[in-house]
Design a protein that fits this description.
- The complex is a heterodimer of chains A (108) and B (118).
- With 108 residues, chain A is mainly β.
- In chain A, 0% of the residues lie in helices and 50% in strands.
- Chain A has no helices and eleven strands.
- In chain A, strands 2, 4, 5, 6, 9, 10 and 11 form a seven-stranded mixed beta sheet that branches.
- In chain A, a hairpin with a 7-residue loop joins strand 9 and strand 10.
- By secondary structure, chain B is mainly beta.
- Helix content of chain B is 0%, strand content 52%.
- In chain B, the strands form two sheets. In chain B, strands 2, 4, 5, 6, 9, 10 and 11 form a seven-stranded mixed beta sheet that branches. A four-stranded antiparallel beta sheet of chain B has the order 1-3-8-7, with no helix packed on it.
- In chain B, 39% of the residues are buried.
- Classes of the chains: A mainly beta (108), B mainly beta (118).
- Chains A and B meet through strand 5 and strand 10 of A and strand 9 and strand 10 of B.
Chain lengths: 108, 118
């Protein structure tokens, strides 16, 4: 199995802050990495696919980078609606998709 | 815009079989190169992929659940279904259905809470 880790597990930030979340895979997954945003009581929403491609309709303040084992999700200027939990997910192993444990972003 | 909606019992007794259906609207379940997945999330915890099906009937299951899971598709109803047998309290979770194009989950249902309790 490909294990996914995220850091930090939680962070507090203010509106307007630049926020960076890191995701690491237990083995190389090329660019088969996706990012999701989940708000309480809601389904996850796809933000970034293939490590750096912005899903249609997602604001450009979200960006993704990385390849191999190390990946980053960046929010360039945090907005009130961005307070949520963020998950990474590997799609390299099509026999077993796995998610990271999540990073909760809350208000400082 | 594709929409997905889960349906099924919200309460299942231990040792019984959990059965859920996902109805796809806004597009044909048979169109394109989409797979159709089930994902679950226990309260306050992370996401676990359960398995997926292609409209040909080809399936992939999470090895940790494989012995208990069956995913099927009914293209005439634009639906796919999940059966999870021999459930325990550990199977209590919100269950989501989702579409999978290239391994990313681009459309999701709203989720349905299934509680395993006597």
């Amino acid at each position: 199995d490909i294990q996914m880790t995220q850091s930090p597990s939680s962070l507090s930030a203010s509106v307007g802050d630049r926020v960076t979340i890191t995701c690491r895979a237990s083995q190389s997954i090329s660019s088969y990495l996706n990012w999701y945003q989940q708000k309480p009581g809601k389904a996850p929403k796809l933000l970034i696919y293939a490590a750096s491609s912005l899903q249609s309709g997602v604001p450009s303040r979200f960006s993704g980078s990385g390849s191999g084992t190390d990946f980053t999700l960046t929010i360039s200027s945090l907005q009130p609606e961005d307070f949520a939990t963020y998950y990474c997910q590997q799609s390299y192993s099509t026999l077993l998709f796995t998610f990271g444990p999540g990073t909760k972003v809350d208000i400082k | 815009q594709v929409q997905l909606q889960e349906s099924g019992p919200g309460l299942v007794k231990p040792s019984q079989t959990l059965s859920l259906t996902c109805t796809v609207s806004g597009g044909s379940i048979s169109s394109g190169s989409y797979y159709w997945s089930w994902i679950r999330q226990p309260a306050g915890k992370g996401l676990e992929w359960i398995g997926r099906i292609y409209t040909s009937g080809s399936t992939n299951y999470n090895p940790s659940l494989k012995s208990r899971v069956t995913i099927s598709v009914d293209t005439s109803k634009n639906q796919f279904s999940l059966k999870l047998s021999s459930v325990t309290a550990a199977d209590t979770a919100v269950y989501y259905c989702a579409s999978t194009h290239y391994g990313d989950f681009d459309y999701w249902g709203q989720g349905t809470l299934v509680t395993v309790s006597s």
